[in-house]
C-alpha cells in the first residue's frame, strides 16, 4: 500500500523562467477574454505551452497550474497556486521571482507555491515488496524506452501474462509516462500494442475478413445492426465484430459445435455470464491464423439459427421461396 511520509522541503525564492512567464501571460489573456466566468472551473481548462491548469473549487479560488519545464517535465514540475492578479503580474514581468517550497530529496526538483503540498515522488512510500519491485521494473522500462512501442515490448518481456487492461492501467498510472509517450486509448490501442509486442503483424486481410463476415451476416433474413460492433435478429445478437488490422474479435453463439470450436487455439469461451449461458465464444484472429472462411461462415450460420425465430430459419433453408 502507498503510505504518506512527508520529506522536508525548503522555502526558496526561485527565478521564474521566461517560458513560464510567457505561458502565464497567454493564460491571463484567455482568462480576460472569457465571456463565461466559469469557463476555467476545471483542472485542465487552460493549456498553454508548458503549463496546464484551471480553477478548481469556484470563482474566488486561486488558479492551480502545473508547469512542466522543457527538458525536465517529470521531477522538475512546479505546482502553482496563483490569483488572477499574480498571473497577470508574472505575465507582464512585474513579478520575476516566486517563493517556492522546494523538494530537497535527491533527484527531485519539484516545487510548490503552496505550503504543505505533497510531492507525489518523495512524500509517499510503498510498503508491499511485490509492488515495490513491480514499480521499480516499470520505471526501469520507461526510462529505457524511447517510445510507446518500445515500452510495451519491454513490458511484455517483464510481465509475460500481461493483459490489455494491466498494460493500460500500469502505463497510465506510471508518473510521467503520459507526458513522455502520449496517451494510450483503451481497449483499441492497448490491445494492438500488446499483440504487436507479442509478434503479431499488421494485415489488411483482417479488415477485409471483417467486412466479408459482416456483409454475410447482414444478408440473413431480418438481420439488423444492433450497435456499431454487433448484428442481431429479433433483438438477439448473433455476431459481434471488433478489432483492427492487428487482431480481430468475433463473438458467436455455438450451441452445437461449441466443443469442437473450443479445440482451436484461437477460440475461447466468452467471459460474460449472459454469453456463456448462450454458448458464446470469442474467436480471436491474427494475420498468422490461417482459418478457412468456410469454417467462420458455418459458425455464423449456426449462431444465427441459435437465436432467430423458426420461420426466419425456414426462410434460410428455403432460399428462393422466401416471399420478397
Ligand atoms: Zn519531490
Explain this structure to me?
The protein is α+β, with helices and mostly antiparallel strands and 324 residues long. It has 3 domains: 7-124, no CATH class; 128-197, no CATH class; 204-317, Aspartate Aminotransferase, domain 1 (Alpha-Beta Complex). Helix content is 39%, strand content 23%. The strands form 3 sheets. It has a 7-stranded mixed β-sheet with strand order 2-7-8-6-5-4-3. A hairpin with an 8-residue loop joins strand 4 (51-54) and strand 5. It starts with a strand and ends in a 7-residue tail after the last helix. The mean pLDDT is 91. Bound molecules: zinc ion. Zinc ion (ZN) binds at residues 103, 105, 108, 110, 119, 121-122.
SSE blueprint:
Layout: E1 2-4, E2 9-15, H1 18-33, E3 46-48, E4 51-54, E5 63-67, E6 78-82, H2 84-92, E7 97-103, E8 111-112, E9 124-126, H3 129-144, H4 148-158, H5 164-173, H6 177-181, H7 188-197, H8 204-218, E10 223-227, E11 230-233, E12 236-243, E13 247-253, H9 258-262, E14 267-269, H10 273-277, E15 280-286, H11 293-307, H12 310-317
Parallel strand pairs: 6-8
Antiparallel strand pairs: 1-9, 2-7, 3-4, 4-5, 5-6, 7-8, 10-11, 11-12, 12-13, 13-15, 14-15
Helix pairs in contact: 1-2, 3-4, 4-7, 8-11
The structure holds zinc ion.
Amino acid at each position: 500500500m502507498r503510505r504518506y511520509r512527508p520529506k522536508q522541503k525548503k522555502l526558496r525564492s526561485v527565478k521564474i523562467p521566461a517560458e513560464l512567464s510567457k505561458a502565464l501571460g497567454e493564460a491571463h489573456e484567455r482568462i480576460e477574454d472569457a465571456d463565461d466566468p466559469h469557463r476555467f472551473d476545471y483542472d485542465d481548462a487552460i493549456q498553454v505551452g508548458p503549463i496546464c491548469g484551471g480553477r478548481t473549487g469556484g470563482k474566488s479560488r486561486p488558479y492551480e497550474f502545473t508547469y512542466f519545464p522543457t527538458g525536465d517535465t517529470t521531477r522538475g514540475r512546479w505546482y502553482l497556486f496563483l490569483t488572477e492578479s499574480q498571473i497577470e503580474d508574472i505575465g507582464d514581468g512585474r513579478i520575476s521571482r516566486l517563493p517556492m517550497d522546494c523538494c530537497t530529496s535527491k533527484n527531485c526538483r519539484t516545487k510548490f507555491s503552496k505550503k504543505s503540498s505533497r510531492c507525489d515522488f518523495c512524500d509517499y512510500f510503498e510498503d508491499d515488496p511485490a509492488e515495490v519491485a513491480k514499480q521499480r521494473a516499470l520505471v526501469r522500462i520507461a526510462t529505457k524506452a524511447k517510445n510507446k512501442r518500445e515500452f510495451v515490448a519491454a513490458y511484455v518481456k517483464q510481465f509475460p501474462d500481461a493483459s490489455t487492461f494491466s498494460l493500460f492501467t500500469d502505463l497510465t498510472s506510471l508518473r510521467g509516462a503520459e507526458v513522455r509517450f502520449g496517451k494510450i486509448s483503451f481497449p483499441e490501442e492497448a490491445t494492438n500494442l500488446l499483440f504487436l509486442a507479442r509478434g503479431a503483424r499488421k494485415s489488411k486481410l483482417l479488415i477485409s475478413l471483417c467486412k466479408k463476415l459482416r456483409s454475410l451476416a447482414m444478408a440473413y433474413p431480418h438481420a439488423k445492426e444492433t450497435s456499431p460492433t454487433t448484428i442481431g435478429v429479433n433483438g438477439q445478437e448473433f455476431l459481434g465484430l471488433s478489432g483492427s488490422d492487428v487482431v480481430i474479435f468475433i463473438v458467436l453463439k455455438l450451441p452445437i459445435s461449441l466443443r469442437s470450436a473450443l479445440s482451436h487455439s484461437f477460440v475461447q469461451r466468452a467471459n460474460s455470464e449472459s454469453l456463456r449461458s448462450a454458448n458464446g465464444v470469442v474467436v480471436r484472429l491474427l494475420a498468422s491464423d490461417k482459418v478457412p472462411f468456410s469454417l467462420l461462415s458455418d459458425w455464423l450460420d449456426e449462431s444465427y439459427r441459435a437465436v432467430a425465430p423458426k420461420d426466419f430459419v425456414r426462410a434460410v433453408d428455403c432460399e428462393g421461396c422466401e416471399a420478397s
